[in-house]
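#lab-general

N.A. 3:47 PM
ok so I finally got the sequence cleaned up, no stray characters, all 237 residues accounted for. can someone with queue access submit it? mine expired

B.Y. 3:52 PM
send it over

N.A. 3:53 PM
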Amino acid sequence: MNLIELKKIQFKYVNSQAFTLKINQFELKKNTQAFIEGPSGCGKTTFLNLLTGLIKPQQGNIHLLGTDITTLSQIECDRFRADHFGIIFQLFNLIPYLSVIENIILPCTFSNKKAKRALQNESSLTAEAYRLCNELDIDDTLIKKPIQELSIGQQQRVAIARAIIGQPDILIADEPTSALDNERRDQFIQLLLQEANKYNMNLLFVSHAMSIKSKFNTILNLNELNDYYKDTQNVPI
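B.Y. 4:20 PM
back already:
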């Protein structure tokens, strides 16, 4: 069974004629660490939103882990995403009024499957969050600090812990290094790949930083996947 299968996908925003994503056939096997590249505006975030069920294509089918998510209701899509995805956002999106531990545990409050997997490692979700903090070198003194008092490097480690708790099948990272300098970016990538390997999680990583794509075992150029884009390039002027 493939990780992802897309068939005859077509998506366009209702109020925009300038963009269409059209993918006739695409498959991605399991055990993948994929770097998704393409210029700004080519649809990388749209592609991720389709995969996670946040939006639905006007045509076609998206199979994830054997489930056709295009046939699911929005509530079912939300549950599927909570159970199977860990997401690292561009600005990390940590909740400022929650503690470090509460931020890390948060995904398990939306997914019984993640909670059960987390409890296979420790006797409580709090204990599992502490275990991940130790694994990711988040010092005990930082755990009691408000999120806004953590450095960017510390916040990124908390964001990784939150994404991997409950060992989701797929990690999504949408431009999470855009605000980092080169040294912090390389540290973040190394840590993320290390954790994905340790827990056998598939990783889809979007970035404009071409210097890091050699670290991934699969490179996806969205313009090359997008049949609409390829067709427009062949239109005579």
